[in-house]
Amino acid sequence: MEVTINNIRKEFERFPALNDVSLKIASGELIALLGPSGSGKTTLLRLIAGLDFPTAGKIFFGDEDASHHSVQERNVGFVFQHYALFRHMTVAENIGFGLKVRPSSSRPPKSEIRRRVSDLLDMVQLGGLEKRYPNQLSGGQRQRVALARAMAIEPRILLLDEPFGALDAKVRKELRRWLREFHDRTGHTTVFVTHDQEEALELADRVVVMSQGKIEQVGSADDVYDRPGSPFVFSFIGESSHLPVEVKEKTVLFQGQPIGISEPVEGGGELFFRPEDVSLVDAQDALFGKVTACRRLAGTRIAEIDIANEGHAPYHVEVEVPLHAPVALGSEVRFRPTRWKVFTNG
Amino acid sequence: MSENASSTISKQPFFRDPADERPLAKTLLILVALAFLAFFLLLPLISVFVEAFREGWGAYYEALVEPDAAAAIRLTLLVAAIAVPLNLVFGLCASWAIAKFEFKGKAFLITLIDLPFSISPVISGLVYVLLFGSGSLLGPLLKSWGIEILFAVPGIVLATVFVTFPFVARELIPLMQDQGSGDEEAALSLGASGWQTFRYVTLPNIKWGLLYGVLLCNARAMGEFGAVSVVSGRIRGLTNTMPLHVEILYNEYNMVAAFAVASLLALLALVTLALKTLLELRFGAGNAGGRH
Amino acid sequence: MTHTATASSAKWRLKQPSIIPGFGLTLGFSLAYLSLIILIPVAGLLWRTAELGWSGFFAVFTDRRTLDALYISFGTAFLAALVNVVFGVIVAWVLTRYNFPGRRLIDAMVDLPFALPTAVAGIALASLYAPNGWIGSLFMPFRIAFTPLGIVVALIFIGLPFVVRTVQPIMEEIDKEVEEAAATLGANRFQTISKVILPGLMPAILTGFALAFARGVGEYGSVIFIAGNIPYVSEIAPLLIVIRLEEFNYAGATAIATIMLLLSFVMLLVINLIQAWSRRRYGNV
Predict the structure, then answer these.
(1) A-chain residue closest to C187, CA distance
(2) Cβ separation B41–C113 shorter than 8 A
(3) Same domain assignment for residues A303 and A197
(4) Cβ–Cβ of B8/A68 closer than 8 Å?
(5) Which of B104, B99, B231 lies closest to B156 in space, CA to CA?
């Protein structure tokens, strides 16, 4: 099912939680809504589900305008952050609930419900646990019951709110891979919310980066990591440093001095670069500063560098330095970004 | 952009929160609840005051200063003044022992403390009649020494202590269990004595819960009817508490007087409720519980 | 922890070691006071019952008047608890879910029956529901006061806060996500309430019912004014105990008291079982 979101605006007591958001989700796609808390990602997910209603704008499921449809009519599978399992029902009763509450005309017979519940349990690899109560399951098992319950109603799209948020690190990684396989097998259009960029980049076909009620960028993992579209995306995803610069005649100037890189745009702006996209140089037109700390990070070594800023606190940047040739604390290093981006002001 | 957005707002139909009822159902449920409470709680309360003032302030005042009524008020205050402090001391001791220590039979002890809640007040009085009555061993013995328990003030105090026994302890035990022993251990490690630890560390931590328990205990002590009625012998001016006096006046069809005395007790209840609500709002003390 | 465990397995000890003082004093006083005020008197009651012997006890128990009084006490308490479950749950729902003017005040008022002396409640209800009272006159010629129905009215008053105050905190804890989950699965509001919310509240509702019922069975002060107290018709068991006492029929009073005591212990046991069962299965009450 293709989902189209047109100019959605959502206000909570005059405070805009979402501001003019548009998004097209292709059928069968696995999409991550990524952003810090308060960015509006969960609000957007709840609007798609029909758990909240937009102040303005429209939501289409395929060609059908679903904006005015109630949550019951939308037929979406929603997996809640804390699973929201019914604790007085067994696993089987939980999964069968959506079928049991259908009007008698479309309700499958009891035996059919039982068969489907057992199929779903096998699908989420929980066969044999149908008589358990949610209280008797581990976090990861509850997660999968919640997913099976959402799938039981044969939803048009699957929505997951922070699906791995409440799990410990190991289970998280396992379930992440498992969800990807699950999605590839069932082919449901799936949207999940996360604040964990690693999760979003690893799992999703496309990542929607959100901040302060707006979509900052939509793209594949490569897009958002290698070609960030805004200062926010650049600093939110991955490690980065930034410095105020000025571009004059295509030359990038820092504190009035050329630093050996050029840009097509003119004017004042902010230079962004990643620690690994830096090379140490022995030239005059380069950035330079004092090494204040040096730390080992997995297979690399990162130097923290203070760049003097007359009369103000120094600028702080991080660059990757050769693993086997550590720089001395307090020494001065000269470096140039090899890949960078200048976002001009205004 | 924003103009475009605001123009579509007016076109949006009314949306319902999926976790909420329709306004009609809501209104209906509120009305049902209010009607039920009006019939069973509010009207009885109002009627006490209406009946009390049916013949005006003069008659109301007369009923309260009449010697037997005044004696009943004095006795009720006396009984509460003995019973409440006794149960206060017990509540402090029991909750200290239960909350600060792990010992065998603790759960059973808590059940025993709750026992008076599950016993009919009439039976609470009856046990003392059996213990001190004419057919018992103790009664005649004490009588020969000139000590009257039954149909006298000591019996009334005992019965009142029995029915109000759990109130303070029940408020304090969960409170002190929640707070744990960390503060006390810190105080002791700093060189405080046991008494100093209680006085300067524990007591400030539990004072609102304690006050709450005392309030409920006092309300019940002053209002107890069944247990007291069995042991008092209802001697006017001597062993009549306010609730018993209300009964006598009511049975004599002296309605204004009965409701006048009753209105004092109702006022006590209202003050208790007001203070209790205030404590809950201010300090979240206790949670009214289900067992008072 | 482990070394104390091995030590205690070797030697039985009353309490775990602790640096906090006052154990002997506080527990000693508590036990002495508990024994004097509660245990010895209640044991005396059981002792007196034992003296009656089986035949004596059985004679009282099978007496028509005793049986009818017990039947009336338990029957009216059961009915009143049922009514309280229905309306108590509605009241708790309205108080936790809706916002309307006066909600705080009404919430505070629910505790009135805990605070209002029973005798005061008794005369107020009697005069209200009497044939010439404000409410009683509305229902004429159908009589409420001075019939078993009057007893039910008084017990509804007494029991209401037990149901509301037991259910309310559990209701406040219901996660909104659970209701939304039911909605996303296609349940309409009525199905969500009847199939998801109410079953989840069942342990609390049953506990509230049992508490209100137990209290109603033993209630005396608020009932005797409105009951009419006609033997075999509207005479409750606690009143029969008082009557037997006034007749100096201590044996009769003792036997009825023991029966009631045993039944309330059964009730207490049932309440504890409900809570243990629900804690085991659902994780909390």
Answers:
(1) A101
(2) yes
(3) no
(4) no
(5) B231
Chain A, window 101-130: residues with a beta carbon less than 8 angstroms from a chain C beta carbon: 101-102
pLDDT digits (tens, 9 = 90+) for C12-29: 677 788 888 899 999 999
Q: Which residues pair with A302 in a beta bridge?
A: A295, A320
- Domain residue limits at A325: 241-344
Q: Band of the pLDDT at B10, cuts 50, 70, 90?
A: very low
Q: Which residues of B touch chain A, with CB atoms under 8 Å apart?
A: 1, 4-6, 8-9, 12-13, 15-16, 18
Q: What was the pLDDT predicted at A2? A: 92
How many domains does chain A fold into?
Answer: 2
A204 and A266 co-located in one domain = no
Percent of chain B as helix, strand, coil, to the nearest 5:
75, 0, 25
B113 and B213 in contact (C-beta within 8 Å)? no
> Are A218 and A299 members of one domain?
no
Q: B56-288: which CATH topology? A: MetI-like fold (1.10.3720)
Read off the pLDDT of residues C71-90 as tens digits, 9 standing for 90 and up. 999 999 999 999 999 999 99
Q: A139-152 vs A169-186: helix axis angle to the nearest 10?
A: 20
Question: Residue B47 and residue C180: Cβ atoms within 8 Å?
Answer: no
C279 touches chain A (CB under 8 A): no
In the sheet with A56-61, reading across from the earlier edge strand, the strands are A15-25, A3-12, A56-61, A64-65
CB contact under 8 A, C182 and A133: no
CB contact under 8 A, B12 and A56: yes
Same domain, A340 and A192: no
Kindly list the domain boundaries of chain B, sorted by start residue: 20-52, 56-288
Q: Are residues A216 and A87 in the same domain?
A: yes
A155 and A269 both lie in a single domain: no
